[in-house]
Design a protein that fits this description.
Four copies of one chain form a homotetramer. Chain A has helices spanning 11-24, 36-40, 74-86, 98-111, 135-156, 171-179, 194-206, 225-235, 257-275, 295-300, 307-316, and strands at 2-3, 29-32, 44-47, 92-96, 115-119, 159-164, 184-186, 212-217, 241-245, 281-286, 289-294. By secondary structure, chain A is α/β, with parallel strands linked by helices. In chain A, the strands form three sheets. Chain A has a five-stranded mixed β-sheet, with helices on both faces.
């Protein structure tokens, strides 16, 4: 097992679940340190029940994560594969996002090695699971921060433009924006019409609604919070406009209940799935049921943003 | 609109959503204070967009809640109905649990008054919605408290028996127990075999696993945390056994993202449903889609506890 | 070094500070596991800088705590002393409360062994330090819980009687009561006049102030929250009166800034003090300056409750 | 009473205290909306006990804050003074920082109007009070955020450079840096030697200590986090260096116990001080006792950073 890519709260709960379930079924369980880097460099250790005591509530990942250039080369992957082989390892569980799954697929394709992916990313940009490990925690961290910003926005009658994470997906922005009553939510999945944003701010100013909040996904096609603020300041110079970029705080912290249970469930079923000979899939949860999605589909396909939600945002923030 | 029964975090987000959606569609929206008590005693006021500013993140309910004996009598209900009628009120949205819905059904049956229920209870004991407003917040409050108790349990090698709310339903106990890695979870939906609990504690003691956690639902058929502790202390007197009853802190606090979005969505659709002439239903969310369940079924039917979860608890806590 | 007595948030920050400072000065630093129990039973290990990495923010104590009957006997203490001696240990730092300091004094009196105490107790019942390690965290945990209870009290117009820890000292009750706007605060240091409490509740009821909060110290001479509730229910049966006992959640959680800095400072100066040959003292902070108080005085003397505060409580809650 | 300048958590607790104390002594209490702006524009309203119900725990300020250019002119101040006079207002309590106090002094100098300042700023840059209202909350918000960043730093072996608020004062950086175990803390009060910072990072890298944290005050004379990161990336390009600017989240949130009690105490004594005819002072707390400092001194003088703390930082982070 390894964790790879950006860390996400709940990864430790998944690690605990894989270890405990594996041991229960009489397997040997190995942890690979720093993702594919540890696989190439043979930084691998056997895990016991004690290795995962008291970690279910911790953010980050005890197996650490890192980028690994060497794994992109055939020689690197051969070394990695040899390291698995010499320990008699028969299957790999990868907790991470699409980049991590792409690496796993290489192992599967080139060496026929059985791999399973667990959706571990705060961005919720994988196909095949309603939630991903870390998303619910990240979105709650974001709304906690935005609630605090609301306090100060309200005290000063300010417009705040808050940027949340999400390079390719707007879920964090959409969920945190609805949950904090944002007037506008700008996400990559829907085109940003800056004129409409300005018009709605102008109209609110006329109604003396001076406290306003715009939530922007880092990857919005119009640009991040700074770009939006630039236009607002040019066209509505009388507004007291501030920018806040939440940044890395969204990755950390104790995982929420949703993330701990999701991580526990998919970790549990990943081990059972390996034992049953079902692999090259991501284990996710759809409609509260365990779902197995081929890794290449989990990476390639995208969920659609619910149009009904965008309609609701307009009505509730009016 | 009224809130009734035990308050639940997210009720204010639902109130905000109903008001804003109603105003958007050109309706007049009235708030009834203290549930059926305010309806009988004519404590009703018209709500504007400003009435619900800055409440999406607040626990409790700005419409307050109370018990009302008078509404149980035909005379009381007649007074209540007259108060609605004289303002030209044409439909009622009730945010609460099964007791609150029973009251709404009376209005519907006796006077043909259109009612809609929104699932507002931390217990998650209604049929027709995967989540209820307040449940996710309550369970996260519980795990935050249990994480703190773990710190002290760990420092002293103690067994903690923690009682969470849930008079008829074990969801709070089940979710918070899994999320905190509890060794045993005792809920009303599955029979408690106290001999098995004692045996598992004994076995763990032999393995020098001294820090243990049992989560008990207040309504477990064996009894609450005190009863369990009594038996443990008799049969395993050498263990350092402590009890903690979480109590009312589980009801309060800023709602989580899940609860705010759930409340916003069902509030939004409740108004649209009334406009469309669909009523005497509870508006819930099943598999991420809006679901309309007749009120009498929402009250009467019960969801089943997932057997797979109970199997997982056994394996992960071993 | 050992931790003893009830655990308190910030103990780990103190341990980190002692270890790092000791290593900086070229000392060998040993951790004793489970307080005097580990000293008697030779559960002692050498600590490195890595032993204390990433613990400054953790609740509980990595050195654990336990009661030890054997240490109360001369034989037990002889064994403990021999265990220190055989490792060449030349001084002991004890993090705990008055019980823990009493044990340290025994070692000092009987064997002339140099000891230093650090004030580690959530009760703030030691003389010689304005704050004790853990108090600020515990009081913030309490007010966070009481804020949540306020939400539900406010929704239902209830009287809540909340019991906080403090068997002999009312500081937790006094601070958390002021900080949450409690109408009455009952502490062991001042006599409880239950008739005055009832009168003030009656008077508030007349003014339609229905939401009320009483904070009671567990060790109030009148009795805990249950006893107070009993009287209130007898004499004001029309009030909706609820009890909440906060219990063990007050001990856990990540320490606040105050507790981390206090712990770091006293740990740092404890080591310097040992090196300088100043011992049999508690290292505390008075008026933001390091203060050395003989251990027997730290145990015996008591701070006075500020009368000005009690006067303020009356006025602000009116 | 007015609040002015940047908002700070605890301002509402101070407002509540002033109102309740004033009413207790039979005074009429007026709230001025948006600071000096409301004073010039006659946005003033009478406050009752109910006006301040349930606000002790809220961030922000219910009286709002704003800049006011007009008050900088003699005509503006005359209008402001007339507005006070026509209501028979006999004294002014200003909650804010040095800018706000400067305004109050103008009123005092030009019109002989009695004013009192309460230290309300998260920066703790006023002379005459050990703490200022909002500082303890802001620093705890900062350490909570940095703890989260630590999770992700630890997972990826990264160097994080975190910028906290403090344009002229390094207290937020110093306290939050010590509390999170930062390796380097850069503040305006002590000269930043960037070569030393680089050297210490290099040395740590050699010891394979890869997770590092630098906390920088926004107003450090070397520049903010971006400037520091630029130099580190040039000279230590192999390090994985990230920047996080905490920004406005530090201003909001429910106040801590320290801030609520401080605000309550100084608000209480401000009213008593006005009644006793003591004014043109800031009411602060020094060594746990109420202290009255002439406003011009509170603005002009500066506390010294404790050299002992800086020595400790070096030793504990080694």
């Amino acid at each position: 097992m390894l964790t790879s890519g950006g860390d996400a709260p709940g990864m430790n709960a998944a690690i605990r679940s894989v270890v405990r379930t594996g041991l229960y079924y009489g397997l040997e369980v190995y942890g690979i340190v720093r993702g594919y880097h540890g696989m190439v460099n043979d930084d691998i250790f056997q895990m016991e029940s004690k290795s995962v005591a008291n970690i279910i509530q911790r953010g980050g990942t005890i197996l650490k994560s890192a980028r690994c250039m060497e794994f992109f080369t055939p020689e690197g992957r051969q070394k990695a594969y040899d390291n698995l082989l010499k320990r008699g390892i028969e299957g790999l569980i990868v907790i991470g996002g699409d980049g991590s799954f792409t690496g796993a697929l290489k192992l599967s394709t080139e060496f026929g090695f059985p791999v399973i992916g667990l959706p571990g990313t705060i961005d919720k940009d994988l196909y095949g699971s309603d939630f991903t490990i870390g998303f619910d925690t990240a979105v709650n961290t974001a709304i906690d921060a935005i609630d605090k910003i609301r306090d100060t926005a309200d005290a000063h009658d300010r417009l705040f433009i808050v940027e949340v994470m999400g390079r390719h997906a707007g879920y964090l922005a959409l969920h945190s924006g609805i949950a904090t009553g944002a007037e506008n939510i700008l996400i990559p999945e829907s085109e940003t019409h800056i004129d409409d944003v300005i018009a709605s701010l102008s109209e609110k100013e006329k109604r003396k609604k001076l406290v306003n909040l715009i939530v922007v996904a880092e990857g919005d096609e119009f640009g991040g919070a700074m770009e939006v603020a630039k236009v607002v300041r040019e066209r509505l110079p009388q507004m007291d406009t501030r920018v806040s970029i939440l940044g890395h705080i969204q990755r950390g912290g104790a995982p929420t209940c949703i993330d701990r249970i999701l991580a526990s469930r998919v970790g549990f079923h990943a081990v059972e799935s390996l034992i049953q000979g079902r692999f090259n899939v991501m284990v996710g949860i759809i409609n509260d049921k365990i779902a197995y999605t081929p890794l290449e589909i989990a990476i390639r396909e995208k969920d659609k943003i619910n149009e009904d939600w965008l309609r609701m945002v307009k009505i509730l923030s009016s």
